[in-house]
Amino acid sequence: QSYCHRLQHDMYFLTSTSRLNEQVVDKIVLQLNRVYPQILTNEEAEKFRNPKASLHTRLSDLLKHLQKKGDRHCQEFYRALQINAEELFNDLPSRKILKTPDPTEIDTDKEQYMLNDRGPVFFLACFSVAAGLALFWYCCNSETQVIGRARRILGFSPIIIGRHVRNICMLYLEDISRN
């Protein structure tokens, strides 16, 4: 966004009551008159520092004059405003727009590499189902003699499986071994 457009956007904010006092406006005009490159000629500086005109009128005329002169002049006005009234410069509406982040921009600090957003509980649930199906398929296969081995595994697993579930599995294995 060009400085002229920013100045047009900030014009109402700057000319509203009690934003800039007379001393600050005079300092800005003097800086624009004396700093290289000279933005305001001596006649223009006297016109904008005339105490007979109201502050609002002088400031409005100054801002319109700078907009007509071009982007470089508006940029120098912002520099003078920053030097002489930094708090006001930071509160400008155009500065607040520049400070807000673009919602389409990727924030690399917050970006994380994740393979799965479901978390560890989902992984454990899937793993438990897969292990249970593998154990069931292995135990139900009639070609293998797994009853003794399964009984040993289930006998040493009171921590993994609750006592009631372990007892039911043991009863089931004993029924299968009798048949």
Structural key phrases:
mainly alpha; rod-shaped; 179 residues; Death Domain, Fas; 67% helix
In words, what does this structure look like?
With 179 residues, the protein is mainly α. It has a domain at 3-97: Death Domain, Fas (Orthogonal Bundle), CATH 1.10.533. The protein is 67% helix and 0% strand. The chain is built from ten helices and no strands. The chain has helices at 3-15, 22-34, 42-48, 55-69, 71-84, 86-90, 93-99, 120-140, 147-155, 163-178. Helix 1 packs antiparallel against helix 4 and helix 2 packs antiparallel against helix 3 (42-48). The longest helix is centred in the C-terminal third of the chain and has 21 residues, at 120-140. Residues 104-115 have low confidence and may be disordered.
Summing up helix and strand content along with how strands pair, one would put the structural category as: mainly alpha
Helix content: 55-70%
Order of helices and strands: HHHHHHHHHH
Query: What summary fits the major beta sheet?
Result: none
Please name the fourth-level CATH homologous superfamily of the domain at 3-97: Death Domain, Fas
The residue ranges in which pLDDT falls below 50 over 5 or more consecutive positions are 104-115
State the name of the first-level CATH class of the domain at 3-97. Answer: Mainly Alpha
Tell me, what's the shape? rod-shaped
CATH architecture of the domain at 3-97: Orthogonal Bundle
Give the CA-CA distance, first to last residue. Answer: 86 Å
Number of continuous helical runs:
10
Determine the CATH topology of the domain at 3-97: Death Domain, Fas
Q: How large a portion of the residues is in β-strands, by DSSP E?
A: under 5%
- Rg, nearest Å: 40 Å
